[in-house]
User: What shape does this take?
Amino acid sequence: MEKLIVANWKMNKTDSEAEIFLKRFLDYEFKTNVKVCICPPSTSLNFVNMYIHENDYSGQVVLGGQNVNENCTGAYTGEVSIYMLKQFNVKYVIVGHSERKKYFFENDDIINKKISVIQLNDITPILCVGETHEEYKNKLTRKILANQLIGALKCATDNVVIAYEPIWAVGTGLLPSLADIDSTLHYIKQCVKQNFNFNVQVLYGGSLNSKNAGEILTLEHIDGALVGGASLDSEEFYKIIQS
Ligand code: 13P
Assistant: This one.
């Protein structure tokens, strides 16, 4: 099955920095069984979309949004709507990222609305779920993830990708054991199947880099990765894709 490798650039890169990345990155030959999705900041969606299309890479690389407002239009200063994302051929939108929960108070109610608005527009949400370190150490991961999945997917259809991102692994260099990652990814698939009766692709995210990608991306239940820091450098990100 084709693996989905997603670059979440977060609040990094201007258009000229994105151009430097793309020039190098798109020069590489990718493995054929990989789909690459780049999620730049919304200010660079136009530039990255144009670059990918003008250089004829749209078959290999698609575009994703890092966030969307749950409303389609209106007086929401500073926000980005799904119609705005659609202008740039966005295929995926990240929802429920732990940074959005922490800094922007994204909760289940908002996440449900965002997933609905994304799916109604034929775009695929990437829903992030993950536990704290305390919860991981106390073996509460499954309980926490079940609550997050059941809370977030109430109105969802089967067009959704789940990213398992332990909060304590994001940007820290810390990771769960390989066995724990694999069994948690398996659990997520089972939990969604049991509660909503559909199958989902599952990604792993959190301190994934070119050194550990090989062993993580060959785990039995993994369908891809959501990469933060290590997606900012074209060579590093390319090595992850080739793992
Ligand atoms: P890092 O890869 O920098 O740990 O970030 C992961 C992440 O948050 C991707 O969404």
Summary: The first helix runs from residue 15 to 25. Strands lie at 3-8, 34-39, 61-65, 90-95, 124-129, 161-164, 201-205, 224-227.
